[in-house]
Design a protein that fits this description.
With 310 residues, the chain is α/β, with parallel strands linked by helices. It is 37% helix and 12% strand. The protein has 11 helices and 11 strands. The protein has helices spanning 45-59, 69-74, 78-84, 104-122, 142-149, 202-207, 210-224, 249-256, 259-272, 278-281, 296-309, and strands at 13-19, 64-67, 88-91, 128-129, 154-155, 176-177, 183-184, 189-192, 195-198, 229-232, 275-276. The strands form 3 sheets. Strands 1, 2, 3, 10 and 11 form a 5-stranded parallel sheet that branches. It has a 4-stranded mixed sheet with strand order 4-5-7-6, with helices on one face. It has a two-stranded antiparallel ribbon with strand order 8-9. Strand 1, helix 1 and strand 2 form a beta-alpha-beta unit. Helix 4 (104-122) packs parallel to helix 5 and helix 4 (104-122) packs parallel to helix 11 (296-309). It starts with 12 loop residues before the first strand and ends with a helix. This is Polysaccharide deacetylase.
Length: 310
Amino acid sequence: MKASNNTNLTQANALTIDVEDYFHVEAFSSVVKRTDWGNKYPLRVEKNTHHILNILEQHNVKATFFVLGWVAEACPTLSRAIVAGGHELASHGFSHQHANKQTQETFKQDIIRSKHLLEDQSGVRINGYRAPSFSIGQKNTWAFETLYQAGFIYTSSTYPVKHDIYGTPEWPRFKHLRQEGIVEIPIPTLEVFNRNVPIGGGGYFRLYPYALSRYFIQRFKQQTQQPFSFYFHPWEIDPEQPKMRGISMKSRVRHYLNLPRMEPRIHQLLSDFNWDTMFNTYQLHGLVNDEEPSNQEDSTQRLFSLGQLR
C-alpha cells in the first residue's frame, strides 16, 4: 500500500482483479463454446495478468486476484507469480458457470476444485471467493453455507444494484457477517435518490469519465466511512484482443467500450487512492481458523488432489 498524493482520504481501499480471459465473459456465452476456450480463441490472460503485476509493482500496490480455476490449470505458474508479488490469491470458481445456474452439489465441486488447485499451486491458503457475474442471490443463498463448509472465510459475490444479468438491490451494501458464518463484502454502490448506483469498477468504470468515477469514490468514502473496493479484468487492459463475431450490439458495446482508455485510467486510479488486498483492507485476519470445516468426502478429495500433484 502506498500513500495517495491527490486525496486526503487515506483509508485503504481494496483493489481486486477477476482473472479470466476475454472468451469467458457472459456477453459471449451464446457464441463461444467451452471446448473452444484456449483453442479457437487463444489465451491472452497470462500475458495480461503479468502486465497488471508490473503495473502494480510500479505503483507499489498490493491487490487481490480472484483467479478462475480454468485459468490456473491452463497457466500453472500464474498463481505462484501472483503470490510471489506479495498479492492475495483468491478463487473465482473453476468453470465460470453462474452460481445461480448450478445445483448445490455442482457448485460445491466447482469451488472445492478451484480452491484445492490454487492452494496446491501456490502453497498458500485460499480464503476468498467471488462468484462469476456476482451470481449469488435470493435463489441460491445455500451457496454461503457451501462456501463456509469448503473453508472460505469471505466472499465478494453480491452487487446490490438492478441489472439484467445480476443484482441484489435489496441486500446489504457493506461488509457483513452472514448467519452461515462467512463474511460477505458486496461490490460498492452509491445511494442516489433512494437508488443504488453501480460504482465498483468493470464496465461502469470504462463507461463513466474518469473524473466522475473519482468523484463517486470520494463521495462513497465520505458518506459511508467505509473502505471502497474496485474490480477489473485482465482483458480490459487489452484493446488488441480478438474481436468476437456474432454478438449483439449491446454485448459489443459492453465489452469493447473504451478499452484503449482503461490502462491509463488504472494508472491514475492507483495514484489517486490508497490500495491494498481485500484481506488487509477489511481486516479479516481474526477470522482465519487453522482447522477448516470439512467432511470425510472433502478430506478424501483433498488427499487425492495432493497425491496427484506430488
